[in-house]
């Protein structure tokens, strides 16, 4: 599906692959047992996953993560804020931080 670059997206999936690339608006993704790939996003990003895998590359604004059992990797990003919650999952976030408010909550998880 194609959409205007400036639009906001709300994407939901179960046991599917979700890809969002090149958007300036807010992007929210909800997934159960699926794969999420997000690239080149300049608006706020929310990722909510249960038992899935998510990868983000070049996310450049606010990031909110909620994960129950899964893996999330965010790379090559310049985040202005991070709010991340994880239960039994693995989070890897690689970003340049400059006065970035970061809030991590983790139960039986690995976060780096």
Report on this structure.
The chain has one domain. Strands 1, 2, 3, 4, 5, 6, 7, 8, 9 and 10 form a 10-stranded parallel β-sheet that branches. The mean pLDDT is 90. The chain has no helices and 10 strands. The protein is mainly β and 112 residues long. The chain starts with 8 loop residues before the first strand and ends with a strand. The chain has strands at residues 9-14, 17-21, 27-32, 35-41, 45-50, 53-59, 62-77, 81-95, 102-107, 110-111. The radius of gyration is 13 Å and the shape is globular.
Task: Sum up the structure in keywords.
single chain; 112 residues; mainly beta; 10-stranded parallel beta sheet; 68% strand; globular
Number of domain units? 1
- Biggest sheet, open or closed, and with what strands and sense? 10 strands, parallel
- Poorly predicted runs are none
Q: How would you name the oligomeric state of the polypeptide chains in this document?
A: single chain
Short overview:
The protein has no helices and ten strands. With 112 residues, the chain is mainly beta.
Secondary-structure blueprint:
Elements: E1 9-14, E2 17-21, E3 27-32, E4 35-41, E5 45-50, E6 53-59, E7 62-77, E8 81-95, E9 102-107, E10 110-111
Parallel strand pairs: 1-3, 2-4, 3-5, 4-6, 5-7, 6-7, 7-8, 8-9, 8-10
